[in-house]
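Notes from the pairing session

We agreed to fold both candidates in a single pass and log them together. This is the raw record for the first candidate, unedited. Please don't reformat it; downstream parsing expects exactly this layout.

Candidate A
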Amino acid sequence: MANLIKYAYIIRSKNAGPFLITLDIFFKSRDIYERIKRLKIFSIEELAKLFNVSKDDIKGVYFIDNINTVKITLKRSVPSGSVYDKDIYGAQQHNPLLKIEIPEDL
């Protein structure tokens, strides 16, 4: 097994308004992207487990074929800039994605 980092050249998160976070995974090639897309590791069920949230908090998983990217939108646990917000820009919310293991024999 290999970490997702082996296959992606950018893994990031950022605000998508005050109530949502967007996570982007840009893959190194079309071939890698297509193979990972077929693995179904970015299902709402798997992402809810990974981020320890309800399935309803995963607002969407989008495969953007022309740029070999997966975009995930999820509900923020607290609004951006609120008293309990620990990451106002949403820039550190992608960390659970770094735990994803991919078969080496893609």
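Candidate B (folded immediately after A)
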Amino acid sequence: MDLKTEKIKKIEKIHYSGYLYNLTTSTGNLFANGILVKNSGGLGTPPHERLVPGMIHRSNGGVLFIDEIANLKPESQQELLTSLQEKKYSITGQSERSSGAMVRSEPVPADFVLVAAGNVETVTHMHPALRSRIRGYGYEIYMNDTTEDTPENRNKIIQFIAQEVYKDKKIPHFSKAACDVIIEEARRRAGMANKLTLRLRELGGLVRAAGDLALEKNSKLVEPKHIEGAKKLARTLEQQIADKYIENKKKYEVILTKGTAIGRVNGLAVMGTDAAFSGIVLPIESEVTFGGKKAEFVATGQLGKIAKEAVQNVSAIILKYFGEDIKEKYDIYTQFLQTSEGIEGDSASIAVATSIISALKKVPVRQDTAMTGSLSIRGEVLAVGGVSSKVEAAIDAGMQRVIVPKTNEKDIILPKERLSKIKIIPVSTIQEVLESVLDWKGKKHILTKIKSFK
């Protein structure tokens, strides 16, 4: 037996019946019954050892990801900027080890790669210096919200469906027919021909809602009928508001779908974001009165800046066609009926132009027709967004026809049974719009004059 083993045996035989003491070293570390406890928070422990490191410190040597970066408070963005520049930052705050005191450590290493995400509209809320740092030493990348409609990408949508089913762990798998319906929905939500949406969060919500419905019905697989049911049950708030909007407007005859009326046009608009477009029928009325020294165009109905500018652009078309008639005689008033929700954008331009021309020349407008389209000052009908949702709104409102920009014709992605309920009229110029929607009986000479302009 060596000397070391003999000492150990002697220690084992010692039975101490007194008190055991804890000792704190000069650095603040604790000896508890003879055992060294590092960073135990004694009064002499350095401040940064008494604090819990933040994410920028934990990310040292790695990557820090911040979602919705523009939602950070300005002071937090300034602190983030400082850490990016200095590659170190003090730990401040309180923790259970700081005895309730607010402390600040010496600068701690914080050298990381920053990956930040946010929406385009929120970029303006970013700290200017922070964004300048990102642009100067990094990259700004605009992420696409659609991808090409190819067999490979359609297979990826199917893979996504399987992943959502696996993550949920309760809903059944999708049949091939149901996968085809989800792919068709991805096309519709893309809003453009030959594209699939990349807004997978919303698509995933539809997958789970359909799965829950199939589970409730004790179905072994999710079928197309479950997806259609889920679309009704899991409507977005914007869709519910749009449905109520159309219901109320039809109830109180704000939306007309039969007969003709002078100066009254059924425009189309959308509510919500790109991810949740919901179409609404937007009745527009115009009236022309004898005015002052020059023509004045007045638009009412909670219009946004772009919508107001669109009305002014329409005035150029009116002046071009009928300048001698209204230059010093008329005031023109245009009202977007009961638009307490507010209207922004210029997609109602062709509807405004049609409404004013109808009121000016006393030519009736067909009320079974709705329309959407932007209008250039030269009279060209330009593409608009949310065209599928707008056509759906026209169908739901009971319209028989809908006028859309010819460039948007391929962007209308709806089931055949839905499209069979309405006639699509694609147009390229305001002349084509006026010829299609106005009742020119007895006033063909006006249409001939309009069509003579190039």
